[in-house]
Write a structure and sequence with these properties.
Largest sheet: 5 strands, antiparallel
CATH superfamily of the largest domain: Multidrug efflux transporter AcrB transmembrane domain
CATH topology of the largest domain: Multidrug efflux transporter AcrB transmembrane fold
Helix content: 40-55%
Strand order of the largest sheet: 6-7-5-12-13
Number of strands: 16
Oligomer: single chain
């Protein structure tokens, strides 16, 4: 009893802490965080983008994709989405999950735009035009920096653009150049005095409320600051947010889109809870009826296991989807399976006439290789599934299933081998051990 006291205290402490993390389920006393539910459970939008690396230097693809993810995170924060999921899938894809978002098109536009403003000047005779609008034909406005001709764009903006008003009360977008941009803009405005400077977003001209392309006339040489006028309040607000969030370094193409309604997600949660509770209750009843006292102890360990895994899910946090819940339920079966192996070994030892204490120790010793090997193979499968989900098939549900199953199996090994063993040792040292019928499995007679 004495040697088991410290493990027992540790187990009870872990259970209490897990209980405080899990209950209440939507927050928890410790951690102050609810379970993170996937889109199939709470509704929202699932988007998958593919990056175009054609304009990126070879060998820098991973860096460009990481930069795109960082910019998307900033932009999604503008939407006010709670705990969005933004992660890399494969070598050239990004998955974005926006829980509870209703303005889907706005979210797609905000995420996917490169938000690179380009500045143009009118072409001269014989030159090739990049843009054409009602005001004429345009080429990129350039300046010479360190002996090279460089095109002027908003990539040289500082991320501090803001809304303001001019002397006539019109909304304007004020911006500031970085050191390189200041040199370029000073050279360009000096060359284009009293000439228009076109502003373009992608292949299109930026237009004001009246539909006319924006091309302010340069009245003086400007270096470090500038303004864009002629846009509506909404246009200036969105453009300012995009510019301050940064520029996506590579073009992104939406290749998959899925929307789940909150009502459907709520139904999924209810059905999952009912199925999980029914399955757990049936397993507990079977273990207690067939294995008697060891089955009752295993049932208590199973409850310890469930709260421990849920606490880990909340603390990491793990995004639970239907597939993830499936992995969790499957890991419960794995936990029970380990206990069954142990109890069957104990039964064999008791039939050989060993004492209860010896049967417990020998049963665990002989069951351990089978438990170890079966769980190792499960871990290998989980690793393969996670790799497939993150690269080849690029599927977040597959990754979620693999992650929840792996966590569950790891905790189930600890529960079966350490917790169940400790409980059995404690009970074997009490007066209940004298009633060997409580430790004998049901024989059918």
């Amino acid at each position: 009893m004495t040697r088991n006291r410290i493990p027992f205290i540790i187990i009870i402490t872990i259970f209490v802490l897990a209980l405080l993390v899990v209950v209440p389920i939507d927050e928890g006393v410790l951690g102050k965080r609810g379970l993170r539910l996937g889109l199939d459970l709470q509704g929202g939008t699932h988007l998958v983008y593919q990056a175009d690396f054609s304009s990126v230097e070879p060998g820098t693809e991973a860096e460009a994709l990481s930069g795109a993810i960082a910019v998307i995170e900033k932009r999604v924060n503008v939407l006010g989405v709670t705990e969005p999921v933004i992660q890399k899938l494969g070598e050239d894809r990004i998955v974005v999950e926006l829980a509870g978002i209703s303005e889907i098109e706005k979210a797609k536009n905000l995420i996917g735009q490169m938000a690179l403003l380009e500045f143009g000047e009118l072409i001269e005779e014989g030159e090739e035009a990049r843009w054409v609008n009602e005001l004429g034909e345009w080429k990129p406005a350039t300046a010479v920096i360190n002996g090279e001709e460089v095109e002027l764009s908003s990539q040289y903006f500082k991320e501090n653009t803001y809304l303001s008003q001019d002397n006539f009360g019109q909304v304007i977008l004020a911006f500031e150049w970085d050191e390189t941009g200041s040199k370029m803009f000073e050279e360009i405005t000096e060359r284009l005095l009293n000439q228009p400077l076109g502003i373009f977003l992608g292949d299109e001209s930026m237009r004001g409320d009246d539909g006319v392309p924006i091309a302010p006339i340069i009245r003086s040489v400007i270096s470090d600051r500038g303004i864009i006028e002629g846009l509506s309040l909404d246009e200036v607000t969105e453009l300012s947010r995009l510019l301050n969030a940064g520029r996506i370094p590579v073009p992104l193409t939406s290749i998959y889109e899925q929307t789940v309604s909150p009502i459907l997600g709520s139904d999924f949660i209810d059905m999952s809870l009912k199925a999980g509770l029914i399955g757990l209750i049936l397993v507990l009843i079977f273990m207690m009826v067939y294995y008697r006292l060891p089955g009752a102890l295993a049932s208590a360990v199973l409850i310890f296991y469930a709260f421990s895994v849920l606490a880990i899910f909340k603390l990491i946090p793990v995004t639970l989807t239907l597939a993830g819940i499936g992995g969790f339920v499957l890991s419960i079966g794995m936990a029970v399976d380990a206990n069954i192996l142990i109890f069957e070994r104990m039964k064999e030892e008791l039939r050989l006439g060993r004492t209860l204490g010896a049967a417990i120790e020998t049963g665990f010793k002989r069951a351990w290789p089978a438990i170890r090997d079966s769980n190792i193979t499960t871990f290998i499968v989980c690793g393969i599934l996670y790799w497939l989900g993150s690269s080849i098939i690029a599927s977040a549900p597959v990754m979620g299933f693999a992650a929840t199953l792996a966590i569950g199996v790891a905790v189930s090994m600890f529960s079966a081998v350490v917790v169940t063993r400790t409980f059995l040792r404690i009970f074997a040292s009490t007066r209940l051990a004298q009633k060997t019928s409580l430790f004998s499995v049901y024989s059918g007679r």
